[in-house]
Amino acid sequence: MLEKIKFEKFTAFEKLEVKFSPGINIFVGENGTGKTHILKAAYAACDIAKSKGGFAEKINNVFYPSGKQIGRLVKRSSVSSNGILEVTRKIEDDKKITLRLSLSNHTTKPDKAKISGSPKAWTENPMEAAYIPVKDMMANAPGFRSLYEEREIHFEEIYVDIIRKVFLPLLKGPTDKPRKQLLESLQEAMDGKVVAKNEEFFLRSKHGELEFTLLAEGFRKMGLLWILIQNGTLLNGSVLFWDEPETNLNPRLMKTVVGILLELQRQGVQIFLTTHDYVILKEFDLQAKKDDKILFHSLYRTKDTGEIEVASTDDYLKLSPNAIDDTFGSIVDREIEKSMGSLGK
Amino acid sequence: MKVDTDGFSFDFTDALDAFVFDEKDKTKTTFHGQPMKAVDIVAEFPDAYVFVEMKDFHDPAYYDTKDFNTEEELKAKRSGFKWLKNYLKYKYRDSYLFRHAEHKVEKPIHYICLLTFDNALNTAMCKALQKELPVGPASRRWKQELVKSCAVVNVARWNENFPKWPVSYTPAGAV
Question: Which of A188, A284, A343, A345 has the highest number of chain B CBs within 10 A, making it the mutation to test binding with B?
Fold first, then answer.
């Protein structure tokens, strides 16, 4: 389970530390406040715990700076500077281990970046993680994996990673009851289940099989979630990252998706989401039960320095600044201005 | 001009008059005393009246009709939302009638509801109220508007929009 992440002069961040909830972490904030960067950095750290690859290389592949020059991930400045990314996680017996990546803006290759902390213990304690990007990849799965392995194509590695995950073989043994319930509620929402044939996905319903390229994007995302639950990627101790789940998803389906995410959390999956959507925030607020562990993280730029900071709260109504509700607030303001003019001002 | 009621403290700094409209104290000249619904505050300005109704809800989720799990829940929420909308609507209409009888509807009237919802829920309530009060010259036969405008805001939005009428709120039971 991830405990916290720290950045110093890394990508958009001058200095930032975010403490995570062991349950669900929801990131809100305007564009350009680094929500996706936090998810990608945390995901890279989770991924290498199992793949045993290098942290610097994974970060480089996941962020994909121009020319794959890792030094470009150091926050831009007029002078030479060093950047730090640090991830802390809890392993057995509540023991905490940390992984730190340090690099300068002159570092060109990942193997020149410095890794410190507990890299050995990190990979000795593998964890399962999945990152669902904003863009759907399921429909593009055929041939994408082999193309990525053979050629240098300009794609952040998260896109190929998620395709790798969906092709993982099924878990052995019968599906346990809670997982079965989750799969059933997704099937009900999608009106079918997902089948794969030669790297191509289909939604099988009573009307027949429909290829993913012909399927609404919202259903593709639900199908992806269905596969990750079915093949055991999302089990107790795993971590799910989902960038803007609302994209292409009908607001009505959000109720099901949020219900499933809450249930996954109850089963021990740690979850990280970014969102711009009011319905998602409210669904969590409304559906959460007393013991659910939800933390809302608001990323914002301070007025004086313009740097990114974070405010975290477990109470939706105390979330401030709330970029999503502030948009509604600005509509309220403009309406009052229009109808009341200068009264009270 | 300061008005304190139901835990809310207003200061209408540029008002000609401002008072608790549903006054229950018989000794006061503003005593209401009629079997009619009444908004909490009426404030008078040179070119307008402002009616204010405040409500603190313990569970705003109860009124949020965008989020529901079952049809029954939606029905219950719709009735909650509808109940609140009607409550705010009839309070205004009865208050208007009372003021009509006082010959005090000669200036345009703005109706502001101060609720403890987030902005998104407030915009939904505002839209419903504007339609049903109704706001503006709704009928071709009308020579006068019942209400010039309607706004639904929370305390933060109120203070943002009406700097000359600062409000603070101390919920009941808070120290």
Answer: A343
CB-closest option in A282, A332, A337 to B66: A282
B174 domain residue, yes or no: no
Do A122 and A12 sit in the same domain of this protein?
Answer: yes
Q: For the domain that residue A25 is a member of, what is the CATH number?
A: 3.40.50.300
When computed from its CA atoms, the radius of gyration of chain A, rounded to whole angstroms, is 21
Inter-residue long-range contacts of A211-214, CB under 8 Å, 24+ positions, other chains counted: A211/A139, A212/A138, A212/A139, A212/A141, A213/A139
Average pLDDT, chain A: 92
Q: Residues B105-164: pLDDT tens digits?
A: 999 999 999 998 889 989 989 999 999 999 999 899 999 999 999 999 999 999 999 999
What pLDDT was estimated at residue A12?
Answer: 95
In this prediction, residue A151 carries a pLDDT of: 84
Q: Mark yes or no for CB contact A336/B153 under 8 Å.
A: yes
- Return the beta strands (E) in chain A as ranges: 2-10, 13-19, 24-29, 82-90, 96-104, 114-117, 129-132, 193-197, 200-205, 208-211, 239-243, 270-274, 294-301, 308-313
* Interchain contact, A259 vs B60, CB within 8 Å: no
Confidence check: pLDDT of B6 > 70 = yes
Chain A residue numbers touching B50 (CB-CB < 8 A): 343-344
What whole-number distance in Å separates Cα of residue A203 and Cα of residue B138?
51
Give the neighbor-by-neighbor strand order of the sheet with A96-104. A13-19, A2-10, A82-90, A96-104, A114-117
A1 found inside a domain: yes
Give the closest-approach CA distance of B26 to chain A in angstroms: 31
- Provide the token pair at A233: 């990627």
Whether the link from the prior residue into B137 is cis, omega within 30° of 0, is no
B107 touches chain A (CB under 8 A): no
How many CB pairs below 8 A link A and B? 83
Which residue among A278, A325, A336 places its CB closest to the CB of B161?
A336
- The verdict on A315 and A242 lying in the same domain is yes
Range of the domain at B33: 2-169
B-facing residues of A in 166-185 (CB < 8 A) are none
The answer to whether residues A122 and A243 belong to one domain is yes
Does this complex have an ipTM over 0.90? no
A246 located within any domain: yes
Is residue A2 within 8 Å of A46, Cβ to Cβ? yes
Closest to A231 (Cα-Cα) out of A135, A141, A162, A143 = A162
Is the omega angle on the peptide bond into residue B134 within 30 degrees of 0, that is, cis? yes
Asked if the model's pLDDT at residue A336 lies above 90, the reply is: yes
Domain of residue A184, residue span: 139-233
Over residues B31-85, the pLDDT tens digits come to 999 999 999 999 999 999 999 999 886 656 656 666 667 777 766 666 678 888 9
Kindly state whether residues A170 and A303 are assigned to the same domain. no
